[in-house]
Amino acid sequence: MKITFIGGGNMAGAILAGLARQGGHVLQVVELHEDKREQLARDYGVAAFGAAPAFAADEVVVLAVKPQQLKAVCEGIAGQLGGALVLSIAAGVRVDALSRWLNGHARIVRIMPNTPAMVGRGVSGVYAPAGLAEADAQTAATVMQAVGDVVSLQAETGIDDVTAVSGSGPAYVFYFIEAMIAGAVKQGFDAATARALVLGTFDGAVELARQSPLDVATLRQNVTSKGGTTERAIARFDEEGVKAAIAAGMDDCRARSIELGQLLSQD
Ligand SMILES: NC(=O)C1=CN([C@@H]2O[C@H](COP(=O)(O)OP(=O)(O)OC[C@H]3O[C@@H](n4cnc5c(N)ncnc54)[C@H](OP(=O)(O)O)[C@@H]3O)[C@@H](O)[C@H]2O)C=CC1
Ligand SMILES: O=C(O)[C@@H]1CCC=N1
Questions:
Q1: CA atoms of 61 and 2, how far apart (whole Å)
Q2: Top enzyme class of this protein (predicted)?
Q3: At the fourth CATH level, which superfamily is domain 169-257?
């Protein structure tokens, strides 16, 4: 497949890394910054341009700029799309706006990926509008399956939901990891040992949750001896409202996705 990314930032780089590792694709990127173009060409062997080339109907164009930049980008490439399949990974911006900015183009799929795509462990929500050819929906899923798991979404609002869970989710996990590393350093460990202890704990706990027939609440209870040490830690987390704060943060994330859609999909 010939796949061109418009925007060569964090998320495009993560997906390109996964696609390059899979091999078998012609990969291109259009990116404003020369240093990023050079790095992407060096790291993943992609052809990197400062301006969009002309596309053809058997190509895939991935819109990977910030939502606020999308209208200008779409209007800039509308005349040279050549009927290509367009995948948008931008938060918020809806298919109807994309189609309008792309002169009525209808081959559009929305995707909400996440950065673990970089190591082939991404999770993506994919929304293909009703009326889109099944083959196009399948192509979008196939591109994202190259870098991880794919969840098909029946409604466009599902993109907002996925954003709050897995799209932004890696940041929540890194936030928790940061907090635990800081806590380990406070216990007296040097930074490298703290990192090894914490990442090892995350790896092991996730793998155990995957492999165990038990649900995660039971796995947590199994660590928590009556009258023991974990009980104290969890009691403090509950007292401080950690679970409620996480749920509220996810609600706010989803609300921002909807808000971005409303703000940016109007023109
Ligand atoms: N980061 C993430 O974890 C995720 C991001 N997304 C979505 O992916 C999209 C990209 O996000 P992210 O990679 O983080 O953003 P970045 O800002 O890292 O990447 C976008 C890149 O595109 C460049 N750019 C801007 N305008 C153009 C243009 N006209 N032509 C070519 N390149 C251009 C930007 O330059 P400049 O910096 O100068 O503007 C920047 O280098 C967003 O819409 C976001 O919602 C979705 C899921 C997860
Ligand atoms: O923070 C953002 O807006 C993007 C979308 C999902 C993850 N990063």
A1: 9
A2: oxidoreductase
A3: ProC C-terminal domain-like (1.10.3730.10)
Beta bridge partners of 62: 5, 87
The pTM of this model reads 0.96
Where, residue-wise, is CATH 1.10.3730.10 in the chain? 169-257
Interaxial angle between packed helices 242-264 and 169-186, expressed in degrees from 0 to 180 and rounded to the nearest 10: 140
Task: Evaluate if residue 22 carries a pLDDT over 90.
Answer: no
Q: Residue 127 in contact with residue 159, Cβ under 8 Å? A: yes
**Cα(167) to centroid of ligand 2, in Å?**
6
**Pocket around ligand 1: residues whose beta carbon is below 6 Å from it?**
6-12, 30-33, 36, 64-67, 69, 73, 89-91, 112-115, 167
Neighbouring residues of 201: CB distance < 8 A, sequence distance ≥ 6 = 180
Sequence-ordered alpha helix ranges (H) in 5-48: 10-22, 34-44
Specify the residue with its C-alpha closest to ligand 1, atom 31. Answer: 31
Checking if the pLDDT of 34 tops 80, the result is yes
CATH top-level class of 2-153: alpha beta
Q: What's the token pair of residue 261? A: 């859609």
User: Interface pTM (ipTM) of the complex?
Assistant: 0.99
54: exposed, middle or buried (Cβ count in 10 Å: 0-12, 13-18, 19+):
exposed
